Amino acid sequence: MHCPFCRNPDTKVIDSRSTDDGAAIRRRRSCPECGKRFTTQENVLLMVAKRSGVTEPFSRDKIVAGVRRACQGRPVGEDALAKLGQRVEEALRATGAAEIPSHEVGLAILGPLGELDEVAYLRFASVYRGFESLEDFAREIEALRRAGSAEEPAPPPH
Ligand SMILES: [Zn+2]
């Protein structure tokens, strides 16, 4: 890694420690050329496994771009989109897995998107889950209605 100040190609590690959650390592480095210090961080790359078998690094920007498309014309701001992207990434990282199947990424998006905007949720779900008929939509809308009335106590099981 080169020095971000003078571009010297050689730097020295003077201290390494884990972040509080243990998910990353921070290194304090110094440049023997200009003497400046800086910090780097090592993270495990979260990989997404596509159905084709190809894996690619998780991209929060990609998630947000996909959700933004589903939110076209809906009252959903950039702040809300950014927050959703963060929630999805945190949820996926919290699984502790280094590689996540792409359908699980989709599932992780559906939850927070349903809270954000029901129409965008249906659009996203229709593409993502491959809705083919009105019945698919009807079933999903029914599920949304049930989730919306969750405060009503369910009948006791027999
Ligand atoms: Zn330097």
TrEMBL record:
It comes from the Bacteria. InterPro entries: ATP-cone_dom, NrdR-like_N, RNR_NrdR-like. A zinc finger (unnamed) spans 3-34. GO terms for biological process: negative regulation of DNA-templated transcription. Binds 1 zinc ion. Negatively regulates transcription of bacterial ribonucleotide reductase nrd genes and operons by binding to NrdR-boxes. This is Transcriptional repressor NrdR.
